[in-house]
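W.,

You were right to be curious about this one. When I first looked at the sequence I had no strong expectations either way, so I just let the prediction run and decided to look at it fresh. Below is the sequence, 176 residues in total, followed by the output.
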Amino acid sequence: MKRTLALVCLLVAGCSETQAEGDGAAVTPLDAAAIDAGVIADPKAIDLAGSFADTGGTGSDAFCARGNREQGYKVGVLVTFGGSTQCEGTGRAELTGERARISLSRTGRGKAITGCSFDAYFDGSALALPGSVPAGCAAACGDRASLAGASFALVEQGNAAARNAPGRAIDQLCAD
């Protein structure tokens, strides 16, 4: 009986969460061990800066981020649906732990966008947009297109790589 009680206590303790210093992200003891072993990225050390491409294999979708955690990032996104249907826009992002708060402010054609801010998930190697985005994001998209659920894999890290991310209406999504 004492062994069973001790086992239950250990299991409960292993599932508890501790607060990561200053980042607001909860880290379990199991996560901490995985970070220490290099199995997963440390959410406090990941950097969004870089060039990303779609994970679906079409090679047309792109995301880029240029900047840093302290000052934020300039971002650009292109999600394609065939030859002419797409979503394309630019804006800013802030990274806190594995949460990237993305706010798009311009379409690919340079028109202003309002009401297009959402939280995406970034684990250090892949970025996943939420399955539902605010209605204001439709301004960045053509008919029957949406940013919802798009995902991107990190192709190359750094600001230099981000500057070269291709767009359609925008030649380079994260250029100066």
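Here's what jumped out at me. The chain has two domains: 2-37, 50-163. And, maybe more interesting for your project: The first helix runs from residue 2 to 15.

Coffee later to discuss?

I.
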